[in-house]
Amino acid sequence: MRPSSALQTVTIFSSLPKTFISFNGQPQSQYLQLSKPKRCLLMITMRDRSKNPRPLQKGRNLSIEAIQTIQALKRAKKNEGLMEQVFNSKFRRLLKLDMMAVLKDLLRQNECFLALKVFEDIRKEYWYKPQVLLYADMIKVMASNELFEQVELLCLCLKKETNVQPDIEGFNALLTALVSFNLPKLAMECYYLMKGVGCEPDRSSFRILIKSLESMGETGPLGIVRQDAQNLYGESLEFLEEDEEMAVSQ
Q: What's the CA angle centered on 176, arms 172 and 177, to 5 degrees?
């Protein structure tokens, strides 16, 4: 069984053949005359592989460059000048996948302001395309850390994005995150944005909103959403009752 952490001492002998040249330019000996071979000690630390970062997504681990960048960002977060150096020397040299991995790992560690700064930089990349699911993840982390001003700013940023794709999974995750933290106004704004980009709400969308708005007593927005749902699925909205029956049976 391999120990979790071990130190191995490697003894290295150095005795390399060299030709000795005298002052008159004539070779005097095939080898340098060494009385004893030089000995140096090299200390190698073996790290426990079980402590490696967990994969952020299936089949993808944090690269060495991404790990070093995260560590550098965390060290520099209280020094604005040093922070900019880290972005120039490390973060902006990363590949696209590593940039996204850095952002997601900072969110996982609840490094909210670092994550926002990284996201701001990512939005300047030529390959950047807005992802509603990523916004949902960021908003959930910010709200869980009670950074509601940043939640509002992210919602505003999403509304100003161009080429937002009609991602039903992403919008449902976003609606869930907002109503989970009792933010009905922002949830309704995202609901209108959802419809505005051509993403038709599905049964899950209406279920999330209707049940949450009912529990929060938001009768005005509730009436609007319920009317939209009835226009699509009929007056009875039977899928709401079906959901309750499934929950009881489970």
A: 120
